[in-house]
Amino acid sequence: MELGDTDNRKNDVIHSGGSALLPAPAPPMSLQEKQDVTRKLAAAGATIQELNTVRRALSLLKGGGLAQCANPAQVVALILSDVIGDPLDLIASGPTVQSDSKPEEVWAIFDRYKLSDSLPSSVKEVLSKTRPHYGETKDHVLNVVIGSNTIALECASRKAVELGLRPVILSPGVCGDVRFVSQLYGLLSRFACSPEKDPPPELAAKILQLGPEVGVESWDLCRTMNVLVEEIKEGWGTTCLLAGGEPTVQLTGKGRGGRNQELALRVGLELSSSEGNNGAVFLSGGTDGQDGPTEAAGAVTDRELMEEATSQGLDIDGFLTNNDSFTFFSQLSEGRRLIMPGLTGTNVMDVHVMLLPPSPQTDLQ
Ligand SMILES: Nc1ncnc2c1ncn2[C@@H]1O[C@H](COP(=O)(O)OP(=O)(O)OP(=O)(O)O)[C@@H](O)[C@H]1O
Ligand SMILES: O=C(O)[C@H](O)CO
């Protein structure tokens, strides 16, 4: 979070991690008490939406407080979004966006995670006060999203065209468990590499059934499948399927990994078990250059993965059970499938890329 002043104007860059970088617990709450509350919520599995709704209510600067402090100076907030849907009031808990979270909304979150009875009395005191507003008008604040997953996918799409690929953007809002997300990409690859001119309708039905589990709307799935069918019928070159978002992993093991590496590993299993000529290549990477507590940003897989692992005596299921995807990719072929760009200094969530080469019958046209 950088602040800069030019004459009577304050320029802020709002980005990932901003909530933690700009703590300002509302009195009488102490910083330690506020940290304990957010840690308990995160450990209980609260979503970023729930977490930041609570953070805004317990902070002097979040939820528009920073803009209020700057009033009447003109505030220009340049925002890098790391939250699906780019909600201005939730990115870094919206320090320049007036908060409307009501105490009852916050208590409902505490109740949901059974924390209401283990909170310090300061929480009750803060929530019993009405939040200050920064006046009747918000004319002195301009919030601009200058970086987001949508923008990243649009840039990737332009690069794909430069490389002679045919891009199609599925969605910037992919979420849900990596097991469902990997099934979606496996089904889409089978749909695109289908030997029939018209892919089997049951494949399309399964893809549409998965939509709600992975945060992708039916019309985005139908639009994408129509592009893939056109590719099959008209025999374009390789289609570059682009998507992004922030899937989740249910951690059951003690291994080292991240959601991007685990997703890539699971998609590799899907591709390896897919019959026919499934020449898809899949990449998942964190745009901040770090995936979980590892040096990698993600990994690349294809249908050769299973055979490659088996030939090197690596049991994929064992690594997955232990959430040990980083160790797996590090040991496989000297780590050649890992993506290691280093930290990028920005964060617009994860990007998924799947290259779908033309299926054999179109080569003969
Ligand atoms: N061994 C593991 N295997 C798979 N996923 C893991 C593992 N360890 C952690 N994770 C996942 O990685 C996530 C944390 O990823 P990361 O450290 O990249 O932060 P982040 O969620 O991207 O936050 P930020 O947006 O601030 O970078 C956790 O939500 C957890 O589900
Ligand atoms: O700082 C935060 O609140 C998260 O990174 C979401 O923006």
From TrEMBL:
<dbReference type="InterPro" id="IPR039760">
    <property type="entry name" value="MOFRL_protein"/>
</dbReference>
<protein>
    <recommendedName>
        <fullName>Glycerate kinase</fullName>
        <ecNumber>2.7.1.31</ecNumber>
    </recommendedName>
</protein>
<comment type="similarity">
    <text>Belongs to the glycerate kinase type-2 family.</text>
</comment>
<dbReference type="Pfam" id="PF13660">
    <property type="entry name" value="DUF4147"/>
</dbReference>
<dbReference type="InterPro" id="IPR037035">
    <property type="entry name" value="GK-like_C_sf"/>
</dbReference>
<dbReference type="GO" id="GO:0005737">
    <property type="term" value="C:cytoplasm"/>
</dbReference>
<keyword id="KW-0418">Kinase</keyword>
<feature type="compositionally biased region" description="Basic and acidic residues">
    <location>
        <begin position="1"/>
        <end position="13"/>
    </location>
</feature>
<feature type="domain" description="MOFRL">
    <location>
        <begin position="239"/>
        <end position="350"/>
    </location>
</feature>
<feature type="domain" description="MOFRL-associated">
    <location>
        <begin position="14"/>
        <end position="127"/>
    </location>
</feature>
<dbReference type="GO" id="GO:0008887">
    <property type="term" value="F:glycerate kinase activity"/>
</dbReference>
<feature type="region of interest" description="Disordered">
    <location>
        <begin position="1"/>
        <end position="29"/>
    </location>
</feature>
<keyword id="KW-0808">Transferase</keyword>
<dbReference type="InterPro" id="IPR025286">
    <property type="entry name" value="MOFRL_assoc_dom"/>
</dbReference>
<dbReference type="Pfam" id="PF05161">
    <property type="entry name" value="MOFRL"/>
</dbReference>
<dbReference type="InterPro" id="IPR007835">
    <property type="entry name" value="MOFRL"/>
</dbReference>
